[in-house]
Amino acid sequence: MKDIETRLKTKGVRPDDFRAVCSVLLSKGFLSRADGGDSTRLYDIAARCEAELSEYLGFAFPVVLINTLRPPHFRVVPSHHRDIGLVEPDDDLEMRREVKQSVAQSLAAVLIALRMLYDEQLLEKKIDVSGRISIKLTELALFMNTTLGIGLPPTRTDQRALFMKLKKHGALDMRIEALGDEDAVIVIRPEILTLVLEQNVRAAQAAFEACSEDPTKEPDHSAAEVPVEAPSAQIITLERTDRGQAGRT
Asked: Core-most of 26, 125, 236, 245, by most CB within 10 Å?
C-alpha cells in the first residue's frame, strides 16, 4: 500500500478521494461519468488512478476492475479467484445478498430481458444521444412473460426491491414511486452491455428453448451462468414458470 500511496500522491489524488471511489465501486458495482455531480468527479479521479485502483481492488477483494470508454464507466466484477477465507464473490458484489427468492428469480430474468430489448432497440436505432433507450414498464413485463416465461414479482414491495437493485447496478433508471402507473417509463442504460454479456443471453435463450421443447425436462441450471473466464458478474439461474398460451406479438 505504501507504493500505491506514493503513486497517488504523485498523481495528485487524495487518499479520501481514492477511498470514496473504492466505496462507490464496491457498494454499487459501477461508477458512471454520465450520472453527473459527484459521480462525474469521482469517475475523473478514478480515470487518473486506474492502475492503482485495479491493483488495490484486485489485491484486497476477489474482483476485477473493468474500464469501458463508451459510455465512460467503471465496473467491478468477480475475479472467480478463490483463496482460503474469501467469501463468494457474488455475495461481495451484493448481487444476491438480502434479496428474497422471488426477487432473485425476477432479477435474473429482467437482466436478460433488458439486454435483449436493448439489442433489439439498438438495431432499430431507437436510442437517444447518450445511448439510452426508453420503454414502458408494461412492455418489459410483456416481453418477460412471452419470451422468457417469467413475470415480475407479484407484490409492490418485491417490485420495488427489484427495481432498486437494478438501478443500483446501473442497468436502468426510473422513478421507483411510478411503479404502480400503467404509463411508467424505464430507461435502459448502455451500461447493461457490461452487466449482461452476449453469451449470457445466448445461454439463457438456449435453456428456455430446451424447456419449451420438452416441458417435463428439468432446466440446465448451468446454461444461464457466465463462464468462469468471462468478465461479467454471474447471472442467477432461472426457474421457468408456465407460459400457457402466451406468445409474443
From this structure: 236
> Any alpha helices (H) in 61-181, and if so which ranges?
89-92, 101-123, 137-143, 156-168
C-alpha–C-alpha distance, residues 201 and 137, integer Å: 20
Q: Where are the beta strands (DSSP E) in the chain?
A: 30-32, 63-69, 72-78, 133-136, 172-173, 185-188
If you average pLDDT over every residue of the chain, what do you get?
A: 80
Tell me: pLDDT of 86 over 80. Answer: no
Q: Which candidate, 199, 241, 234, places its Cα nearest to that of 219? A: 241
DSSP state of 155: S
pLDDT tens, 30-68?
999 999 999 999 999 999 999 999 999 999 988 899 999
Q: Starting at the edge strand that comes first in sequence, how are the strands of the sheet with 185-188 ordered?
A: 133-136, 185-188, 172-173
CB atoms within 10 A of CB 112: 24
Measure the CA–CA gap between 46 and 73, rounded to whole angstroms: 10
Among candidates 34, 55, 56, which has minimal Cα distance to 43? 34
pLDDT category, 117, cuts 50, 70, 90? very high
Contact 113, 144 (CB under 8 A): yes
Query: From CA 128, how far away is CA 132, in angstroms rounded?
Result: 6
Distance CA 126, CA 235 (A): 27
Predicted TM-score (pTM) of the model is: 0.71
